[in-house]
Amino acid sequence: MSTDSNTKYVGKAPSRVEGPLKVTGQAKYSAEFDVPDLVYGYVVSSPVAKGKIRKIHADKILALPGVLQVFSHENVPTLAWFDRSYKDDVAPGGSPFRPLQDDEIKFSQQPVALVVAETFELARYAASVLEIEYEQEKHETDVEALREKGQEPGSGKTGYKPPVRRGNADKGLSKAEHRIKQEYVHGTQHHNPMEIFGATVHYHPDGKLTVYDKTQGVFNCQQYLKKVFGLSADKARVVNLFMGGGFGAGLRPQYELYLSVLAALELKRSIRLSLTRQQMFSLGHRPHTLQTVELGTDASGALVGVKHKAVHETSRFEEYTENVVNWSGMLYQCPDVHLEYEVVPLDVFTPLDMRAPGAATGSIGLEVAMDEMAYAAGIDPLEFRRRNYADRDQNEDKPFSSKKLREVYDEGARRFGWDKRKMEPRSMREGNRLVGWGMAGGVWDASMQKAAAKATITADGKLTVSSAAGENGTGTYTVMTQIAAETLGLPMEAVTAKLGDTTLPEAPVQGGSWTAATVGSAVKSVCEALGEKLLKLAQKMDDSPLKGAKPEDVEFVNGLIRLRKEPRQSVVLRDVLQVSGEREIEADSSVMPNPLNMQKYSMHAHNAVFVEVQVDEDLGTIHVTRVVNVVAAGRIINQKTARSQVLGSVVWGISMALMEETVMDHRYGRYLNHNFAEYHVPVNADVRDIEVHFVEEEDPHVNPLGVKGIGEVGLLGVAAAITNAVYHATGKRVRSLPLTIDKLL
User: Fold this and answer.
1) Single pTM value for the model
2) Measured CA distances, 44 to 113, 417, 551 (Å)
3) What's 521's domain CATH number?
4) Of the listed 256, 367, 660, 712, which one is catalytic?
């Protein structure tokens, strides 16, 4: 028998298993589930940024036929008292926001009332005419004006790492042959996934709830509901089967969940609550950030000092933190490093993790500064990075579990044609367009969390694997199916993956690029456990060639259980199932990170981005005409979905560099462009040639699958590379993003 396998799926590029459901409209999102006796809610938002509610005139609204209730701080029941009840799995330090619990206004667009009616149209109309009197107070929303009030975080969220300081950066910089110091700024950004936040709560006759919520973590939401409303797990089932984009916006329970469950419990009715696009700008954001970077090199171009300070906003009631500056002590070799990080409390809603939180921001400051430093030292930007390559994580003083960044540099430079680049700015052009080539890179944590999974195989050879992890568009259904099918040697068509339901085995929130590593490892583990049960059944068959074989002696391939060293010695898996007489066989398993490996190694993914821009010399318009993004992220499970993740990251990076910004009118403490018409993101005409390539790494330490996750690392360096390319094209260095036309002219 040939040892070739048709069931080796890991590393291949199968299409999404849920694709047909999505393109035919059969995939149901949270605000689309049909439930009986449904009523509708509509949120009323505060027009002021700070103050108190003096009076809510609900009587006229309640007199409208079909209006059921106007919920506000004046009539909601008393719920959990302590802050800990409102803290979710990824909450920062401080006191979480409690909707409708008092008369205080903490930020603009704060939900102040919920109108519930028999129809959506009536709820929306009633909300629009509800009169509310406010007592307005002076607000503060400008982080640039208040930067001197910055303070070191005292109680950051889980995962926050205080900045490192090693050696003597000031002393190193004082001896530098070449030296630069600059400030880099980017404004507020909002997640803006295509699907708006919404919830459908099914109130069952026995008082139990099935909550279909837009979330990146159903168990996180269930725990929140249990603590806030005093519900047991069986009375608060949370479901999210599909998500139309999250990017971090769904990591924490948002207020549509709280308000819809509150209304369902009080009215004993099923309810649907969807936010508006404008209200999506009240849910958290990537914070407006100011960075100061100072670098120095010796005569050979080796870094002798690095200083990096970041200041960004947080709310007054929670202390949101990001790992912004830490990467500057890790990505390049330098003995003397001083990193600082501060937050400024303002009258805004708490910022929220957005794709590659901290690193996406920090890489702009560091990588643009590295480009400036390279020019100051007279060294090609790529060569400058090679000369300062870090073979060891200096922050943690650990070796990397694997790192192929040198190979990434080489592959990216070769595919882009970097050797043809002229160093001098304004030295390349096509007609009236100035041509610029820039590059940058990034590093991101390779994390794994604790998770569980279940596997069930039936007598007809159909396998179901399940875990409560989410699917926000990254390809989790497909990756789970690939891993399960390969582990048990089945065709992918014989495998069904179930996700996003608190009745399934527990899994963490989907974020941090850890889902494939975490849930994928759980699926592999549970299928191996199921395989051991199947092997024992196979050994009970008459004349079984597998008698005496241990699990490590066999493999599951092409519907067979066979000996690894003698593949002709095999049994048909379906025969095993039918002879066993069992209708179905189950296995459960859970996984967690290896603490010894975590102590011993630094685990990270890396990338490098090469960009070509063309800038109209007369108009200043910028066109990103070519991008090559090369990523080293361990083992790639699915080449197609992985490439898709990085393609999306590049488009996001173009947006971050050239157009994306939420503009605050500080007179009112309110975002001006809280809509898709004026919050600019790339369209087809903005996106040209994008190449994505992977340099695979064998990493036995990072997790059982050897994967590192790519949902975030692909974004890193894109905005910085574009900024650097614009300098190369024009000779003008812009240090404030987005890089709009007015900043070039």
Assistant:
1) 0.97
2) 5, 55, 60
3) 3.30.365.10
4) 712
